[in-house]
Write a structure and sequence with these properties.
3 helices; 22-stranded antiparallel barrel; about 0% helix; mainly beta; about 625 residues; five-stranded mixed beta sheet
């Protein structure tokens, strides 16, 4: 937590907007002068040699992007879609599946019931301030063996506006609306955001036999509530937040065999309370206490399926979590820093076809780091004991060697193993999603080496990585309407990632990322799914006063979607344009996505909507 210290001048207020990551802004009010210092951009438990990418509002502001589209521009990130706006959308990293990537909201782990990956469509981008992507997250536990994505909400924006309204209207009957209100004082801050989203989603497409058909039952509706509050003094900081989201959408099914009345309902609730005390230095706290409660609900209902009898299944999962983190700062750079974390979790799963099951978990994590000259080294370990299952574990070593002020070499490697959790084993045995009591543990080994360069107007990073997966647990189709978790054969994923950005003067800026990957299952001959051979993303932006124009282009190679190689999604090419104009109190944004209407395909090689046009108005009250 970075704070400004000015000798012999009384500080009348320090304004801090904090997530569990302990990143914030420090503001000192000196008479009529307000001095704002940006805090550390990385979450506190990130190791110095790990591959990390931080996305901020500057990367997506004024471009009309969704959360998934903002993430997709980063190297190594693979977005899997099952339809248009509001459809099930998950994120993977470097070949790791969605349920192997730990998604956190302000440092609190979140997911859907049954071990399913978080649906990114549940969260809007209006309430997001920053996204932190750690591509090797073994230091966060075995649930993060594929990496970590920490979504930091927007309480910090209270520094810029007391209230505001945003409205947008787009193609396919799509609309967005949000309202925010913030209050600040010398010792506290409160922030409230209400938002809603809707889309009719139906569109025409050319069927296999040639005639034009309409893909129906794509209607989606979502509501979100975000509240944050912080209070602080010279020695302590207390932060609370509440996030609620609910999404209901149609499930159109296969293009040739539509399901016109199938509905999927998802809900996510997360509440967190954190207390930071005993400042360690200008950018850290010695003690953290975090209490959190998260819950999720999933319901699928199809009264008139194309094949078979009516289907209805639902599940609700509640998780209470307590975490204490203690840090000891070394007196000199040669002595090691120590961080100890203890977390206790109680999880309850309720389904429609059985009673309730509960499970208690305890986790211990230890991080030791030290510096020898310009070399920084860290070692991290995590052990999680689950009631009635066993002990999950992970460890990681990370090194970072500075080469001057602007360049550094980095390396990290580690291993993790995980037993199936309660929801994967005991999810309802009837309905849309099933459990599998015959699962056995999964494990992964990874290594990463890279070079990074950062200057005031230029940044560049190049990383090579290798990941070996054993008995990966993945939800796969087992019938026309049901999926269940299965252990997959041993697989190896390796590749290169390059990304960078630049700015020329005050007007021109841009960024680009490129990922080259090779993945395969060992000995089985099965194709590796949901992994394109390459992905290229570029963006160029021009600014002049209140006017801004950006052009972005994405290319992604063809990929296989099923283990039998019968479904292959063609290569994707998409060009997006956006223009915005900002006045004193109003901002107008025009967005055109998929400019050349190149007819994308989703995860199941089914048609996606074509060109999308949206107009957005933002008004400061």
């Amino acid at each position: 937590m970075c704070r400004l210290v000015v000798a012999r001048i009384a500080i009348t207020g320090i304004l801090l907007a904090v997530s569990v990551s302990a990143a914030a802004l420090a503001v000192e009010q000196l008479g009529e002068i307000r001095v704002i210092a940006p805090a550390q951009p990385l979450i506190t438990r990130n190791l110095p040699g790990e591959s990390v990418r931080v996305l901020t509002r500057k990367d997506w502001e004024g471009r009309g992007l969704t959360l998934a589209e903002a993430l997709e521009e980063a190297a190594g990130v693979i977005i899997t879609r099952t339809g248009g706006a509001g459809s099930l959308t998950t994120v993977g990293l470097r070949g790791a599946r969605g349920n192997q990537v730990l998604v956190m909201l302000n440092g609190v782990p979140v997911s859907l019931p049954g071990g399913l990956a978080l649906d990114l469509s549940l969260l809007g981008l209006e309430g997001v301030e920053r996204i932190e992507i750690i591509r090797a997250g073994a230091s966060f536990g075995s649930r993060a063996e594929g990496g970590v994505i920490n979504i930091i909400t927007r309480g910090q924006q209270a520094l810029k506006a007391s209230s505001g309204l945003q409205l947008s209207r787009g193609s396919f009957g799509t609309w967005n609306a949000s309202w925010q209100r913030a209050r600040t004082s010398s010792a506290s801050q409160d922030f409230l955001l209400l938002s809603g989203f809707g889309s009719e989603g139906d569109f025409d497409f050319a069927s296999v036999n040639g005639p034009i058909r309409t893909r129906q039952n794509n209607r989606a509706r979502r509501v979100n509530v975000l509240w944050e509050s912080q209070s602080f003094n010279a020695n302590t900081l207390t932060s609370s937040f509440l996030n609620l989201g609910a999404l209901r959408r149609g499930v159109p099914g296969f293009a040739e065999f539509p399901t016109l009345r199938a509905k999927l309902t998802e809900a996510l609730g997360t509440a967190g309370w954190s207390r930071f005390s005993e400042p360690a230095d200008e950018c850290g706290w010695s003690r953290e206490l975090q209490l959190s409660l998260s819950g999720s609900h999933l319901r699928f209902h199809d009264p008139e399926p194309t094949i078979g009898a009516p289907i209805s299944s639902k599940a609700t999962e509640l998780t209470a979590r307590t975490e204490v983190v203690l840090r000891r700062k070394a007196e000199t750079s040669q002595n090691p820093d120590t961080q100890l974390g203890v977390a206790l979790t109680e999880q309850a799963l309720h389904g429609s076809d059985y009673g309730s099951r509960q499970q208690a978990r305890g986790a211990v994590s230890l991080v030791r780091s030290f510096a020898i000259g310009s070399l920084r080294a860290s070692a991290a370990g995590n052990a999680t004991a689950s009631e009635g299952q066993g002990v999950n574990g992970s460890w990681e070593l990370a090194l970072r060697q500075g080469l001057g002020r602007e360049t550094a070499l980095s390396a990290s490697f580690g291993r993790s193993f995980r037993f199936p959790d309660m929801s994967e084993l005991y999810f309802p045995n009837e309905g849309y999603i099933r459990g599998n009591p015959d699962l056995h543990s999964e494990s992964a080994r990874f290594a990463d080496i890279g070079i990074e360069m950062e200057r005031p107007s230029f940044r560049f990073a190049l990383h090579a990585f290798r990941r070996q997966q054993e008995d990966t647990i993945k939800f796969v189709p087992v019938s026309a309407y049901a999926i269940e978790p299965r252990n997959l054969p041993s697989a190896i994923v390796k590749g290169l990632e390059a990304e960078g950005g630049f700015s020329i003067g005050k007007h021109l800026s841009g960024n680009a990322s490129y990922t080259l990957t090779r993945a395969s299952f060992r000995k089985s001959g099965l194709p590796f799914t949901q992994m394109p051979r390459y992905k290229l993303s570029t963006m160029l932006r021009y600014r002049d006063g209140g006017f801004s124009f950006s052009a972005a282009h994405t290319r992604e190679s063809a990929q296989t979607s099923d283990l039998f190689g019968s479904i292959r999604v063609p290569a994707k090419r998409r060009t997006d344009l956006s223009a915005s104009w900002r006045g004193k109190r109003n901002e107008w944004i025009l967005t055109v996505q998929n400019l050349f209407d190149q007819g994308g395909r989703d995860f199941w090689d089914l048609p996606l909507p074509g060109r999308y046009i949206e107009i957005t108005m933002k008004h400061s009250l």
